Amino acid sequence: MHHDPQSKAFPVSWDQFHRDCRALVWRLAEKGPFHTIVCITRGGLVPAGIIAREMGVRTIETVCIASYHDYDEQGKLDVIKPISPNLIEDGGEGVLIIDDLVDTGKTAKVVREMLPKAHLATIYAKPKGREMADTIVTELSQDTWVYFPWDMGWQFQPPINKDTLG
Fold it and tell me: Which of 99, 143, 151, 163 is the catalytic position?
């Protein structure tokens, strides 16, 4: 998926992201209990770590899915690493699936099919994929491009001095 210059930039700081993860935990308080978190990598790794800490969940599992948007209009999805079979046995009862963002909903749909009884939560959701998530924090427009803190570095800010002020 390529960044469209027409899209709206939505930069997220570490501080904001941490607050949003905690907001998600509050929203999930009534939905549990959850014994395991399954994070959809790679985007789900950071939120899963924060959420697991906040909820006191020690078992974190990953499911790794690659999408190939460049080669195929369908955006073929490949499960690189499946979920351990013991979690799939009861359809994912008591499992919390975490991702950073649900965009088109294609990845979420694949994971939902693996764990039909699990609860899927994301920090951000766009309209096309919104129905795939049970709990979210923030809805974004489809043309919003999220800049996550792990994709960004610190930027030098030149000092404001008489030269700058003209």
Answer: 99
Half-sphere exposure of 161 (CA within 13 A, CB side): 4
Per the residue annotation, which of 103, 134, 143, 163 is the catalytic one? 103
> What is the overall mean pLDDT for the chain?
89
pLDDT exceeds 70 at position 72: no
- Residue at token pair 């129905």: 131
Sign of CA dihedral 77, 60, 121, 9: negative
CB 123 within 8 A of CB 21: yes
pLDDT tens digits for range 36-56:
999 999 999 999 999 999 999
Burial class (CB in 10 A: 0-12, 13-18, 19+), 138: middle
Task: Give the sheet arrangement for strand 36-41, strand by strand.
Answer: 76-81, 59-68, 36-41, 95-102, 119-125, 135-139
What the block records as the tokens of 124 is: 């951000």
The verdict on pTM exceeding 0.90 is no
Q: Is 100 a known active-site residue?
A: yes
Kindly write down the DSSP assignment for every residue of 49-82, as one continuous string.
HHHHHHHT--EEEEEEEEEETTT-TT-EEEEEE-
